[in-house]
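Thread: "does anyone have the structure for this chain?"

Original post by V.I.:
We have the sequence but no experimental structure in hand. Need at least a predicted one for the grant figures.
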Amino acid sequence: MLDIEDLQTFVEVADAGGVSSAARRLGVSKSIVSRRLCRLEADLGIQLLARTTRGAALTEAGATFRDHAARVCAEIDIARETILPAGDLRGRLRIAAPLSIGPTDLAPVFAELARRHSQLHIHACYSDRFVDIVGEGFDCAIRVGYLGDSNLIARRIGPIGGKLVASPGYIKTYGAPERPEELLSHQALMQGTEAWQFTDGDKTISVRPQGRFKADSGIALAAAAVAGLGIAWLPACLVEPYLASGALVSLMTRYPPPTAGMFVVRPPGSHPARKVRVLTELLIEHFG
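Reply from O.Q.:
Generated one for you, tokens below.
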């Protein structure tokens, strides 16, 4: 008789590419993960993983078995949710959230979810990088901005505004752009090579500014803007304290950025886990 916990552990190791990564995901020790793997392989009488110096690689049998094991685990999760009392949530919920606003705006909502459901284990990871929620084993992610094409399933939880900002020192030295096209002659502070969008009546104007300072963190970009390194396009909730103190100034208010959104995204599948649904509803209640 195969143990469901052993199956779930095997799927985590297969997806994470190693025992150490899977142990971090599961919140248990490496020895426990190894013990569960050995037990599963003994029960099946076949080797599922080939241990290497870099981690663990699936054997041919392991690759075949992984897909079946993942489906079994998903079906059991759905079955468990079906028979649980209506308000009861159990198990583990792994959430990827943006670092720029996560600890301040989202963490209180995660804490409230934990308070309401004492059997639920919440693991939140805060990072402004674009997390691969399937490959890294997250149940869902919170994303801010404009969503591109993806096979992920998204649910909008509320609007979020953006502001174009710079320091008084930068404006004194380089002037303030008045029209979107004038941004092309300024230093932009960006995460990558993104386009910035602005509204002019019913029209949306898109520009691709250039700059020498880039960072994968909105907090870091705000700090660079305060230091006078250039112009930044950032979530309003992140820059409000800087605007209130006078460290940053709003620019081009005649051409406001279109309202963006905050979304919960999850892997594709017809049956979203109830814990993800409950989190989504709580976020909509808070931000919607």
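V.I.: this helps a lot. Residues 60-83 form the longest helix (24 residues).
O.Q.: and The CA atoms of residues 87 and 117 lie 8 Å apart.
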